[in-house]
Amino acid sequence: MSRHLLSAADLTREDALLVLDTAEEMALVEERTVKKLPTLRGRTVVNLFFEDSTRTRTSFELAAKRLSADVINFSAKGSSVSKGETLKDTALTLEAMGADAIVIRHAWSGAPVNLARWVHGSVVNAGDGTHEHPTQALLDAFTMRRRLGRVEGLKVTIVGDVLHSRVARSNVLLLSTLGADVTLVAPPTLLPVGVESWPAQVSYDLDAVLAKSDVVMMLRVQRERMGAAYFPSQREYARRYGLDVRRASALHDDAVVMHPGPMVRGMEIAPEVADGVRSTIVEQVRNGVSVRMAVLYLLLGGASPAIGGDA
Amino acid sequence: MNYLVRDVRPYGEGEPVDVRLVDGAIAEIGTGLSDGDSRVYAGGGAVLLPGLVDLHTHLREPGREDAETVETGTLAAALGGFTAVHAMANTDPVADTAGVVEQVWRLGQEAGHCDVAPVGAVTVGLRGEQMAELGTMADSAARVRVFSDDGTCVSDASLMRRALEYVKAFDGVIAQHAQEPRLTVGAQMNEGVVSSRLGLTGWPAVAEEAVIARDCLLAAHVGSRLHVCHVSTAGSVELIRWAKSKGWDVTAEVTPHHLVLTDDLAASYDPVFKVNPPLRTAADVAALRAGLADGTIDCVATDNAPHALEDKEAEWGAALPGMTGLETALGIVAETMVLPGRLTWRQVAERLSSTPARIGRLEGHGRPLAVGEPANLCLVDEAAPWTVDAATMATRSRNTPFAGRSLPVGVRATFLRGTPTVLDGAPA
Known about the structure:
- The structure holds 2 protein chains of 2 kinds.
- Helices cover 38% and strands 14% of the residues of chain A.
- In chain A, helix 1 crosses helix 11 and helix 3 packs across helix 4.
- Chain A has 2 domains: 141 residues, Aspartate/ornithine carbamoyltransferase (Rossmann fold, 3-Layer(aba) Sandwich), CATH 3.40.50.1370; 151 residues, Aspartate/ornithine carbamoyltransferase (Rossmann fold, 3-Layer(aba) Sandwich).
- The C terminus of chain A is likely disordered.
- Chain B folds into 2 domains: 100 residues, Urease, subunit C, domain 1 (Roll); 310 residues, Alpha-Beta Barrel (TIM Barrel).
- In chain B, the strands form 5 sheets. An 8-stranded mixed β-sheet of chain B has the order 3-2-1-4-15-18-19-20. A 5-stranded parallel β-sheet of chain B has the order 8-9-12-13-14.
- The longest helix of chain B is centred in the middle third of the chain and has 18 residues.
- At the A-B interface, helix 4 of A face helix 5 of B.
């Protein structure tokens, strides 16, 4: 693996499988009473969050702590960033304090790429603007593999606001690397111009693709998109693109329903479906910690075995 | 001081000649001229062109003297072979009154590196609401003839129509930055395959083309002159070709960077490649080159846009758009147009000197290389490749997208009314 994880496109098939296999080892730790490895003892991981995201930040924090790293949470709110300090100055400051890895969440697409130019440590993209969220794609692939035994050959349908979704971009890249067959479903207004160049099929008709899907991944749709005329109303969106009970019943028996969260119940997904047996939503959260442990370990720990190796 | 410039080839044509400059004008052209009382400058077989004229430069003074001043910007211009530049109005305060345009004009005179023709804002404060005092700026010492809200588009169709009409009284022209604002809310780069991948909000070609189409129709309706700034798309070239075929008085410019750079450079998220209008696709670049070659696009203008380091060393979305270009313009034109045989040096003289001078109604610039004409000259070394180094340029800013690039020709010397501003590639 390269030094940073900025895009799902950075991962070769071998890299991605190594992360997933390592995450399986990490998941074993979760079953122990003492859920902690000494692997990253003495290393410092900074969570640099310019956007509020309690769930992602907590997941990374837990992952680093379970590997015994020292963790600093650096939130843009109340820090020098809100006083006009640039990303570069923040980066240099954190590096001077000895950060071995910086996990960054930022509202601007590409900010992790900029950051990686200014620091010597590893940079992990924890979501940048409408660009990518590679650890989300890894945890989604991990969840698919655990539920369905494989990723290769799966028919994965991603539904919702693809245009503004970093989850969709990373998933399309990673899933195609791993050999899955991806279909994007959205109203045409929520698909980017240029989507035809992506390694994915595109459909405007959810009902037409559901029966063939092994995985349905629902994306969050923000209500404020209505104001910008992406769709007329929440009701019409839910009617055409929401995964309600009737639609879910069209899925085959083994198909799973995923959502990266936070979800809008009643908008893109019905509560009965979100809480149903097909849903992997809670597993995704749990798997997120294992996958992020694997990523931090592989970026910082080098080639030694994850469990029982040198700290 | 009179100069005898020896061994130069006017328009790169024919055998070398000597050119004597007396009292700011070309006094003699011939072979084997005697030194007389002239100081002799060896031209080394350089191509002799009329001094270049830029219709579109940001000099940043007043307001952002940390990014550029009239002094540093015009020195950069002279080093690039320019003897006149049009300074855009988006300063702070905005150049929307006679006071500001006269200040900028005087600063140019005092610096003495090249003439500065201020561009006046079309609307007060560039706000697109109320017409600025265009006539007063035209009548001022700065003699403003080009008006533009560059950076913001005069998007209100009624206001644009009135501005086009109003400037007819003093033979002015509206230079429009064509950008439909509602189609470019939050826009960061060309909308297409690359933007879809990078998750950057798209700036669609149609947002430029729709305004150009509308403005051409408005100019035709009221019988006015329209100049289209920094054309960037293949569709825009088509529209301008169509407008010209109707006989309408529409002119257009293209920047050097749009002749060579493409939107895939944004994949680095390096804001040095962020510019407005954005870098487009290879197909657009090809159409722009063809349009410049066949005359659909009248001239090259730099849109030189210096920015302080902190405004570029940032996240892509937070960085300001713009690139410097005065010192590299001729090199890029040579690389993309002259060496591949799309333009002769005589045509370069049209597109970078006589045509922009005519559009800007600039007296004394863009004149033929002939006895009695003003001695505004540029000497180009054809076989003098050099490597662009952002740190050693005359501009106060470092945001050149061409750092590290080798350019095939260099400016050997520039003369402003017979006085050298640049000799041997360095400030005279």
